[in-house]
Amino acid sequence: MRFGPDRHAIACSVASHAFYVRTTASLDIVVTHQPKPLKILFLHGWNSVVGGVKPTYLIEQGNEVCNPKLSDDDWEDALSAAQLAFDTQRPDVIVGSSRGGAVAMNLQSGTVPMVLLCPAWKRWGSIDTVRSNTLILHSREDEVIPFADSEELVNRSELDLDALMEVGHDHRLADPGSLSAMHWACQILASDAAMTLFPSDPANSKPRNRKSVASQDDASYVCDACGEEIVIPLDLSEGATQRYVEDCPVCCRANIIHVHMDDDGNSHVWAEPEQDYD
Predict the structure, then answer these.
(1) What is the pLDDT of residue 35?
(2) One domain, residues 51 and 152
């Protein structure tokens, strides 16, 4: 679907690469500052290499990334190498891709938040749940690790459905949209917004206001080309997870818009350019 410029309202100009999370509470969480540099422990997948597309992308966004080599043949050695890196670096966030996601789940890492990319938790390790401050990114078109595995992990961990985000078109999650979503997840987990999205003690936290996604009329994204915040209407008829192209009403450049609406009525929106601009 495509929305024309007449469907938009232009808000204030903000720094590019801002991140937005709209909540059903009285306060909208809007992280409009330039993303802060994070210390990230990136755990690669089986038969992957150090310095791949995803850790390189995180570095390019200004983060400090520790990307240790993990043995493909020896699980215990891989786990030990990851644990040593964690103990030495004390990262803000752990990102685990595929087998690296299983490694992340099996680490002694306290309450450090995790971003898991198509985690292969059923194939390696003994841990089958994750803590509440975890986000899982997975593609339904994953040909290696079934999307259903992540759905099961969310259920086993008693997480809200919004902890699982559908992104990408294959197992690698190396497309621009998936890379952007990965960085967004790291930023939101490491920010104050995570206190609202992922309370440390759900049993004692105040219940979130539950209302239908239909009660939300709009959300916003930042145009990658001109840096303007663009308000867009939300169209429930297109499903809870959406991906479409629309032209920025300010600069007319095309953006790929990603929308994810969770079970509590929160919308998560981010954008990427349809093509690179010189």
Answers:
(1) 62
(2) yes
Enter the pTM of the model: 0.64
Q: What is the DSSP string of the chain?
A: ----GGG-EEEEE--TT-EEEE-SSSS-EEE-SPPPP-EEEEE--TT--TT-HHHHHHHHTT-EEE-----SS-HHHHHHHHHHHHHHH--SEEEEETHHHHHHHHS--TT--EEEES--TTTSSS-----SSEEEEE-TT-SSS-HHHHHHHHHHTT--GGGEEE--SSSS--SHHHHHHHHHHHHHHHSTHHHHHS-S-TTTSPPPPP--GGG--EEEEE-TTT-EEEEEE--GGG-SEEEEEEE-TTT--EEEEEEEE-TTS-EEEEEEESS---
> Which residues form the domain of 219?
5-33+210-273
Q: Tell me, yes or no, whether 197 lies in a domain.
A: no
Is 51 within a domain?
yes
Assess whether pLDDT exceeds 90 at residue 68: yes
Q: Do both 83 and 174 map to the same domain? A: yes
